[in-house]
Amino acid sequence: MPELAAGALSWYRWDGNVIELRIRVIPRAHQAAFGSVRGDRRVIRVNSPPTQGKANARRRQFLAGAFGCRQRDVELVSGEYDRDKVARIYGVRTMPVALL
User: Fold this and answer.
1) Considering the domain boundaries, does residue 9 fall inside one?
2) pLDDT tens digit string along 22-78?
3) 31 lies in which domain range?
4) Rg of the Cα trace of the chain?
5) Burial bucket for residue 47 (CB in 10 Å: 0-12, 13-18, 19+)
């Protein structure tokens, strides 16, 4: 797998075939996209409201598409009801260009 952008080493961790991301989700964005790095987290903007799990569902869908895996391969480790989350992605096939 290619390396991610230099200077951004604190928001992700590789463990073999698995990547763990420390993210901050911003709901109700114009479109789903990766944002900048804030502290030790990568910002992910999703175009869903933070009600009834809609933002979490959109986050899962966005990450699965970005990393070329199935939605069931994107696991939420912590932060179900918080903007700051930890996500684990299994079977990464592609690296999003926005992160390189």
Assistant:
1) no
2) 999 999 999 999 999 999 999 999 999 999 999 999 999 999 999 999 999 999 999
3) 15-94
4) 12
5) middle
Cβ neighbours, 10 Å, residue 53: 13
pLDDT at res. 57: 96
Tokens in use for 62?
Answer: 């966005």
| 8 Å CB contact between 86 and 74 | no
pTM over 0.85? The answer is yes
Please give the tally of structural domains in the chain.
1
- What pLDDT does residue 17 have? 85
d(CA 20, CA 14): 6
Q: How far apart are CA 20 and CA 77, in angstroms?
A: 9
DSSP at 73:
G
Look up the CATH number of the domain holding residue 45: 3.30.1200.10
